[in-house]
Amino acid sequence: MANLSMTQLKTRNSASRFSFNFSKKVYPRPSRVDFKVFASEGQVSEPDLSVKVNGLHMPNPFVIGSGPPGTNYTVMKRAFDEGWGGVIAKTVSLDAAKVINVTPRYARLRANANGSAKGEIIGWQNIELISDRPLETMLKEFKQLKEEYPDRILIASIMEEYNKAAWEELIDRVEQTGIDAIEINFSCPHGMPERKMGAAVGQDCALLEEVCGWINAKATVPVWAKMTPNITDISQPARVALSSGCEGVAAINTIMSVMGINLNTLRPEPCVEGYSTPGGYSAKAVHPIALGKVMSIAKMMKSEFDSENYSLSAIGGVETGGDAAEFILLGANTVQVCTGVMMHGYGLVKKLSLELKDFMKKHNFTSIEDFRGASLQYFTTHTDLVHRQQEAIKQRKAIKKGLQSDKDWTGDGFVKESESMVSN
Ligand SMILES: Cc1cc2nc3c(=O)[nH]c(=O)nc-3n(C[C@H](O)[C@H](O)[C@H](O)COP(=O)(O)O)c2cc1C
Fold first, then answer.
1. Is the CB of 128 under 6 A from ligand 1?
2. Which residue out of 122, 185, 282 has the highest number of ligand 1 atoms within 8 Å of its CB and is therefore the one to mutate?
């Protein structure tokens, strides 16, 4: 991961052409929002975890991130039953026959493993593609879930080729199932870019603007654009997506990675018939990188977009309520979890909720909005840090606590007076 260099990125056009000069609240949101109400339990003394995002009500901010935990009816039902605030299904496209997965498609990085399979998993790489299940089947399951859980939030994740009619058809078909919102996968780092899909669009602001234009002209439910971290400045495509009509952005998808080389066979992992391809990195190891990307998007959104109407869904390495609190402190409205669910199961939402509530109680926060974005103000430039530190040292010196020189000894208690010498 540390070796990921920007020269690896296949950016067709320079994103820097998009140096828009936005002022705050330039983009009032149109009313493409469905006010479906989730009846959150009345809580007396407990902190309230419920959130309202782009008009969608959720009992808590925890959302299943697109991937294996949202791949079929059974697992999505399980997520609702366990109490997840929302579910984003595995990404679908029109023609699943074009999606051909390989095995193995996962590789794991373990801490203190020393070659054993017992160390804690801290990094997860996948070369899995989007859903290879027939679209018809997935649509039937979305419909059934919405019939059985009308008040719960189900979000379809979609991806298509560079073809306006195909996007329009896919949007129309997923919307007919009654899903509450759409997340656009502009971020899958492997396989799909070869078909000008996924990250190939998210890394190219001109292409992204055009495709977002098609999507938002067609969609009648809120649209979130899921961004790739495999780009120099993630705030640029996020800005393009929001200014092209999307109600929200989600970040991050996986980080392009090579998991390792087998030192016996000299072949890369995961090894498919002796060969491999760079994949997407997730889990705990990516959390600090995700925080950095989310911070950068949140700063841009705070200065250019109305926070009432535009949302941010943070993803990357969440396994504890504290991980989620960090994303919310940066400005996230919701927090997605994918690999964490694969490793710890759907019951993880209970632990996440308890830990987030503990954090809130500690600070006397009663709602998510009480602390959302509270830490964003403490990010500044390095130059400003230098200035602040120089100022602080100047002030501390001016106060000059304690004994400064031999002439200050009074003779009344040498021990006490000498202690004051170290307190500065
Ligand atoms: C096995 C696997 C499959 C994934 N498939 C998808 C997908 O189909 N669509 C998508 O938008 N993201 C997909 N993702 C990315 C996750 O939704 C998420 O953005 C990323 O893994 C980082 O979050 P995490 O650390 O909580 O997993 C996948 C991730 C994994 C591990």
1. yes
2. 282
Q: Which of 247, 211, 233, 254 lies closest to 297, judged by CA?
A: 233
Question: For 6-378, CATH number?
Answer: 3.20.20.70
Residue 111: CB atoms within 10 Å: 11
Domain ranges of the chain: 6-378, 382-422
Looking at ligand 1, which residue's alpha carbon is closest to its atom 6?
67
Q: Is the CB of 315 under 6 A from ligand 1?
A: yes
End-to-end Cα spacing for the chain: 42
Task: Look at the block and give the residue holding tokens 């039902």.
Answer: 77
Tens place of pLDDT per residue across the chain (424 aa): 333 333 223 232 333 333 333 334 445 555 555 444 444 444 457 999 999 999 999 999 999 999 999 999 999 999 999 999 999 999 999 999 999 999 999 999 999 776 677 789 999 999 999 999 999 999 999 999 999 999 999 999 999 999 999 999 999 999 999 999 999 999 888 877 777 888 999 999 999 999 999 999 999 999 999 999 999 999 999 999 999 999 999 999 999 999 999 999 999 999 999 999 999 999 999 999 999 999 999 999 999 999 889 999 999 999 999 999 999 999 999 999 999 999 999 999 999 999 999 999 999 999 999 999 999 999 999 999 999 999 999 999 888 666 667 777 778 777 777 776 654 4
Strands 56-58 and 51-53: antiparallel
